[in-house]
Specification:
Number of helices of chain A: 14
Shape of chain C: globular
Number of strands of chain C: 2
Order of helices and strands of chain A: HHHHHHEHHHHEHHHH
CATH architecture of one domain in chain A: Orthogonal Bundle
CATH topology of chain C: ABC transporter involved in vitamin B12 uptake, BtuC
Strand content of chain C: under 5%
Strand order of the largest sheet of chain C: 1-2
Chains: A mainly alpha (344), B alpha/beta (294), C mainly alpha (306)
Oligomer: heterotrimer
Strand content of chain A: under 5%
Structural class of chain A: mainly alpha
CATH superfamily of one domain in chain A: ABC transporter involved in vitamin B12 uptake, BtuC
Helix content of chain C: over 70%
Helix content of chain A: 55-70%
Largest interface: A-B, 42 and 62 residues
Number of strands of chain A: 2
């Protein structure tokens, strides 16, 4: 019997399987992540001590957008699906909370899951149609759907039409000793949601489903040729991303005290995309980092000059030209270079 | 590694050799006014290595696309292991054991060689992929992948980005990806495309090893040496139609095939033979060289 | 249904469609040849409108103002191409989105810095401010007729330019197969700059012509940009013919539905529903049209790429 060709084997494989270098697995900083969480939790009392309580609301806003950006990063960065309509899911979640509050249902335990369900179902329908297209056509179809929801919301005079619907009352977290009326409590709730979402997304991205999603981004034909169901994988990710965006929307409705069609405008989708790309599409921290950078820049620059948008644009340009993989790419490059320097 | 081959042969059909594993029945495919596949019929028996040859433009790749599920035929039928698979999608056929490799290498260039094969193993799993358990901890998948790499001789390259491999090595990876899907019939679309003589020889030995394990192969190739060395039977495709099927010797001597495919070469070879025969017969016979073959 | 009204709306649709064509033509060429997603295309339209308004405010006649706007915007466009956009051709679409989004921010704020927050006034030239009687009973503003006239002339000129000149041949080749075109020695750099310049000029023409009808304000580019993208997707990316057909379709459907839909709805539903749902449906109709076209022809009506 012929001995099959083996090629030069350099001895048995000694490295354990789980530590081989791979682009598919995304680490979340390990122990440092916990330290970060603790530090973030300590932010409100710190701000209060500095007399800067106002910034608690800013920080909450940043966290909510970090959640929305992380959800978009799942399909945009990891899936390679450039959806220009993601704000629609945020808006749908917000409107669900608004409409329910208007009808007298104020419990967060009902309204927030409802927001996720509504957005998730919308994502399921939109995804089922859009995911049959590719490239720029996918971008345009997702944009079209978002615009449709935007205009539908404008036409709903019963819910304020173009001006929007003020939130009857902030969601009530019945059973918990926390009130969303208190800025610090709201911040901690948002932080908890963010941490859970981030941990969940990390799991998803490093799972076989997440790996196939990334594989489909790289080479769709190859995935199909090896038996993978590209559509099912992408659609699942799309629905998950939509539901999480809906949750972000529910939080945003509470933060703003208002739900309006503007939430679903394509410029909002564009802003979310910019956050993800700025942070680093396809990197685990890309969405959150981008949201933080964008909103903090906005906050800082608008305090310095009335023409802050010009400065913001200039900074974004610099990032695009010199940091091709966004901010996480910059950080990764610097740490790689310092590792090289250390090892000589 | 012996295990891997053993697994493959278990996956390969252990039926009686006379039973057709793949039946292509009068397949038709048109692109506008061009009929690329013109009622092509062939059958591949379980355990055999069947080669598909034909001149350029005969429609071999179009036929392979239809068999693998990348293109839907306009007419005719496809049967795999007795089942009608004409309407099945490519992933469905792959899960059923009908797997192809590509003529133009299609791999995940940015990921490592090992990642490439692990992804193929994960994609092939009949159950829906898990959302929760880290893929990196999937011992079975990694063991499978490493076995495939060893089989095609790429273990040393496991951690290199697939895009940095030499062309021949990428073709080997292409084969490993196809094997990772546990094929019962492997469609090889020009596995030796673009390879130099050394690389081709290695690939031929590799394919011989697979053949020895009774894995059914349908091989499209231009390299005639390889075809005649490996193939049990050969089908000849000309203008979208299979004009002849038989053993390599039968095909080599078939008049219609020689005309259509080997053409001028065959005529020249015949004339040379006749000249030699005339020389042997004596100088007088030289003035009237016999012309054989049309 | 009043025939006069229908005719009026048809002319309005034609006028809007032709202006959309001016924007879409540049956009489809840039996307088709350089594979560049340029979100700042609408900003060039805005700059054109502002330059025209500024020129008129400085005392120039309407015609001179329009020419000044075209020249100024074309120069700006080419300068942007040479300094910034050229570096983006090799980059992925996401980077292009980020970069051109940044450009929108800078151009919007730049305009605000020069001309302030308030919308500018751009008046129709006095000679054209009256109506013209096209048919007995059908009065149509002369200015809008001018727009239609200019639009048709430019469309014809573009057609001749693209089909009858060498430059046009390069453009069509580039839209069809970029790699091959550069491999065949076409001076890509100059071609791309020229294409961008022409696109910017067309934007400026549309902006200065539409200025008197719509408001000249910061952000006017974004709303029309979306429509332009819809047009080129319907028409087929890289095809000027597609841009024209798509633009006319979108222009007619958009204009027509805004007046006709509420009227139709009023026949079948309560006036309240009609006034709420009408405008929303009219806005959505464009996207439904795009979806319908893509369903039937997935690459658009006249895809340039083979």
């Amino acid at each position: 019997m012929t001995e099959p060709i083996t090629g030069p084997i350099i001895g048995p494989i000694t490295e354990p399987v789980t530590t081989r270098h791979t682009l598919l697995h995304h680490r979340a900083l390990g122990a440092w992540a916990w330290a970060l969480l603790v530090a973030l939790a300590a932010l409100p009392p710190l701000l209060q001590a500095l007399g800067l309580e106002f910034y608690t609301v800013v920080a909450t806003r940043v966290l909510i957008f970090a959640i929305a950006a992380a959800s978009l990063n799942l399909i945009l960065g990891f899936g390679g699906l450039v959806s220009f309509g993601h704000a629609a899911f945020v808006g749908l979640g917000a409107y669900t909370v608004g409409v329910l509050a208007d009808a007298g249902i104020g419990s967060a335990w009902i309204a927030w899951p409802a927001a996720m369900v509504v957005s998730g179902v919308a994502a399921a329908v939109i995804g089922a149609i859009s995911l049959r297209t590719r490239g720029v056509y996918f971008i345009m179809i997702t944009l079209a759907f978002a615009q449709m929801f935007h205009y539908l919301a404008v036409s709903l005079k019963a819910y304020g039409g173009d001006d929007g619907l003020p939130l009857a009352a902030r969601s009530i977290l019945s059973g918990l000793p926390l009130s969303l009326a208190d800025d610090a409590s709201f911040y901690w709730v948002a932080l908890a949601v963010f941490a859970l979402v981030f941990a969940g997304l990390r799991r998803l991205v490093n799972s076989p489903l997440g790996w196939l999603l990334q594989a489909a981004r790289e080479n769709e034909t190859r995935v199909a040729a090896t038996g993978g169901r590209v559509f099912a994988v992408q659609w699942t990710a799309f629905v998950v991303a939509g539901a999480i965006a809906g949750l972000a929307g529910a939080l945003l409705a509470n933060l703003n005290g208002l739900v309006s069609p503007h939430l679903m405008h394509w410029s909002q989708s564009g802003q979310l995309m910019v956050m993800v790309i700025l942070g680093g599409a396809g990197a685990l921290w890309g969405g959150p980092l981008g949201a933080v950078a964008f909103l903090l820049l906005e906050e800082l620059l608008s305090g310095v000059t009335i023409h802050w948008q010009f400065a913001l644009g200039a900074i974004l340009l610099v990032v695009v030209l010199f940091a091709p993989r966004g901010l996480t790419g910059l950080v990764a490059r610097r740490s790689a270079r310092s590792k090289e320097a250390a090892h000589g | 590694m012996a295990e891997a081959l053993h697994d493959l042969s278990r996956a390969a059909s252990s039926r009686l050799p006379e039973l057709a594993l793949l039946q292509v029945h009068r397949l038709v495919k048109r692109f506008g006014a061009l009929t690329a596949t013109d009622e092509a019929s062939l059958e591949v028996r379980a355990g055999e290595t069947h080669a598909l040859i034909g001149p350029n433009g005969a429609g071999k790749t179009t036929l392979i696309h239809q068999i693998s599920g990348a293109l839907a035929p306009d007419g005719g039928g496809l049967f795999f292991d007795g089942e009608d698979v004409t309407a099945l999608s490519m992933p469905q056929r792959v899960c059923g054991g009908l797997v192809r490799s590509f003529q133009i290498t299609s791999i995940y260039r940015r990921f490592t060689v090992l990642d490439n094969v692990v992804l193929a193993v994960l994609a092939r799993r009949p159950v829906a992929p898990s959302w929760w358990r880290p893929a990196r901890a999937d011992e079975a998948a990694y063991a499978d992948a490493e076995a495939m790499l060893a089989l095609v001789g790429l273990t040393a390259m496991a951690d290199r980005a697939a895009g940095t491999l030499a062309h021949g090595e990428q073709r080997q990876l292409e084969l490993a990806l196809a094997l990772a899907a546990r094929p019962r019939l492997l469609l090889l679309d020009e596995p030796m495309a673009g390879m130099g003589p050394d690389e081709s020889a290695r690939m031929v030995e590799l394919l011989s090893a697979l053949k020895a394990q009774r894995l059914t192969l349908l091989l499209v190739e231009h390299d005639m040496d390889a075809v005649f060395r490996l193939a049990d039977r050969v089908s000849v495709l000309v203008s979208g139609r299979v004009i002849a099927t038989g053993t390599p010797d039968e095909i080599r001597n078939d008049a219609a095939v020689r005309q259509a495919y080997l053409g001028d070469e065959a005529e020249a070879a015949d004339r040379a033979d006749a000249m030699d025969a005339a020389d042997a017969a004596g100088p007088s016979a030289r003035s009237h060289p016999a012309k054989e073959g049309a | 249904m009043d025939l006069i009204l229908v005719a009026e709306q048809a002319l309005n649709g034609l006028q809007f469609g032709l202006m959309l064509f001016l924007l879409a033509a540049g956009l489809t060429l840039v996307f088709g040849i350089m594979d560049l997603i340029n979100l700042a295309h609408g900003s060039l339209y805005m700059v054109g409108a502002y330059l025209a308004a500024a020129a008129m405010a400085a005392g120039a006649s309407f015609g001179i103002a329009v020419l000044a706007a075209i020249a100024g915007t074309a120069l700006l466009g080419m300068a942007l191409e040479v300094t910034l956009l050229r570096r983006l051709y090799q980059r992925d679409h996401l980077s292009q989105v980020l970069a051109t989004f940044a450009l929108i921010l800078m151009l919007n704020e730049g305009v605000r810095m020069i001309w302030g927050e308030q919308p500018l006034m751009l008046n129709t030239p006095a000679a054209l401010s009256g109506p013209v009687e096209l048919l007995p009973g059908l009065m149509y503003p002369a200015y809008r007729l001018l727009i239609i006239g200019v639009g048709l002339v430019v469309a014809l000129a573009l057609y001749l330019l693209v089909t009858r000149t060498r430059w046009g041949m390069w453009v069509r080749a580039g839209a069809s197969n970029r790699a091959m075109t550069t491999a065949m020695g076409v001076p890509a750099d100059r071609l791309f700059t020229a294409v961008f310049g022409v696109g910017a000029a067309l934007c400026a023409l549309a902006g200065s012509l539409l200025g008197p009808l719509l408001a000249v304000q910061v952000g006017m580019g974004e709303s029309i940009l979306i429509l332009a993208f819809v047009v080129i997707v319907i028409g087929g990316i890289g095809s000027i013919r597609g841009a024209l057909v798509g633009a006319l379709l979108v222009g007619l459907v958009d204009t027509g539905s805004r007046t006709l839909l509420p009227a139709v709805l009023r026949q079948v539903a309560s006036p309240e529903v009609a006034s709420n749902l009408g405008p929303a449906l009219a806005s959505i109709l464009i996207y439904l049209l795009m979806a319908a076209v893509l369903f039937w022809k997935p690459r658009g009506l006249f895809p340039a790429r083979g």
